[in-house]
Amino acid sequence: MDEIRIGIAGLGHRGLGWIRLLQKVPGYRITAVYDWIEPLQERALSAIGNRDHVKTFSDYEDFLAWEGIDAVGLCVRRPDQGAMAAQALEAGKHVNAEVPAAHTLEDCWRIVTAAERTGLVYQLGEQTRYWGFVEAWRDLVTEGRLGRVTYCEGQYIGYYGTRQFFQDTDTGHFYSIEDLPAHPEAEPTWLHSMPPIHYLPHELSPMLKVLDDRVVEVTAMSTASPSYSHPEIGQPDIQVALMKTEKDAILRMATGFTQKIPSRRGHHWYQIIGTRGCIEWKRSEKGRPLMWRADAQMHDLAEVDWRFERTDAPAGARSSGHGDADYYVQAAFRDAVRDAKPLEFDVYRAIETAAPAVLAAESIARRTWLTVPDFRPGKARSPGEMPGA
Question: What is the pTM assigned to this prediction?
Fold first, then answer.
């Protein structure tokens, strides 16, 4: 195929972002949009140049049944996001899904087995793994210049105010806490009650790429809910997971959406410590990333000009979003679907970033360590089979 006929499911802020970007990336044609909140459909159509050729849907099953789409761009934030992705695969559509992939372990397995049975492409649209400094860090680790990695940290403290937590489901309009007295029709969104740790893939994905590793055990802790910062919101302010990888590294990962921070742009932070050196992302807008190597005559951490933006980025990546990384998500999916190019961030790697987050939330409730299953087929499971089948 010359063009992928793609339907966008979920027409909120991220869905609109995908619509604008996909019209700039060669190889795509938007042919359908879906949202159960009908007023959002017109807003989406207004952002599409060939809107007269785009079909609108308010029912997800009707959307999937339409023969005019080859792939689904799944941009929803709902507890059944994982089930929706699996349903699209089962309906014969390739899937490119926003973070997080799923909110239950059952849905993680359903996505994996559906992709195996159908042979269709599933990609988690996780951008941070494509950042320039992530590539540089992976090279350092792969070449052994940090020695054996023993400890990693990552955090996503994504404070966006309070507007994403309450929505009028008739109009799609979001309201902040301050707006609520005048808008009793506003209802709590899924983000209001979603465990923050479920959003962990944004931090876990780049670190597992750097380490070429997977998580095998996880436990976690949480502050109380509702939020201390905004008691009207049902989320805890901070949740922290402690993980162990197959290669015997320890990972500490933290997430939160209601905790205020100095800089919105600086809410991603990472650190890697090895037996022969360490690297650290910048702490502030004025700061720089840091590196120290034991065998390089370095007496202290030194600043390094690593950035989100890549030095080898093509023109199409510039200003695509998230430090130019949004382009790579769409280009990788296009190349896998249209040109059958092997997908580096395949369904197994995707679910290996989602499942530890799901189990981290479960471990908070159960106050215990949990084992992360191996989602790849082997002696215990044939491709396409659910575990224990």
Answer: 0.96
